[in-house]
Amino acid sequence: MPKTIRELADQLNVSKQTIQYHYQRLPAKNRQKDSQGTNMISPKAERIIRDKVAKPLVAKNQQTGSKKETKTSEENNELIATLRREVADLKSQRDKQLATKDQQIDHLIKLIDQQQQLQLTTVAENRELKAHIQKINGLLETSKSSQKRQNNSPEEDMYKNKRNKNWWHFW
């Protein structure tokens, strides 16, 4: 059940400011507020804060020779199990994200390969078209020269010869 900052501070025998300090440094998903806007500490957040607050207390208690008990081995085991589950969850999320990224990379590589193949095909077709155009241009030039030769038909040659034999031509 969620607790307030004051309740947790009283349980741990620390100031409200200490709990507030650690609460503000928790990830946003571990912080929550009730309907009145009061900061509430979930059991998970409580374990994290207890762990952070208890370590300095243990060191302080050892220095002052206090015989207060801070945590039982059962609480430690529970905390370790919780942390292991969180680590496993994070690894699972990371692995899923990496698998997704690998699929995206594979897809992009396939698209790049397709683009390169298309580009090579286009270049080859362009070369074929240029060769075909050059061949057609060559055929057109040969047909123009043969037309010129045909335009010089025997009738034209006879007309030219006749024109040259006119009487004024002899003067």
What topology, given as strand order, has the largest sheet?
1-3-2
- Counted by DSSP, the helix tally is 5
**CATH fold assignment of the domain at 1-66:** Multidrug-efflux Transporter Regulator, Chain: A, Domain 2
How much of the residues is beta strand, in percent?
under 5%
Bulk shape: rod-shaped
Largest sheet: 3 strands, antiparallel
Which ranges are low-confidence, i.e. pLDDT below 50, for 5 or more consecutive residues? none
Secondary-structure content class: mainly alpha
CATH architecture of the domain at 1-66: Orthogonal Bundle
Q: Over all CA atoms, what is the radius of gyration? A: 47 Å
> Terminal Cα separation, in Å?
135 Å
SSE succession: EHHEEHHH
Average of per-residue pLDDT values? 81
Number of strands: 3
Tell me the name of the CATH class of the domain at 1-66: Mainly Alpha
Percent range of helical residues? over 70%
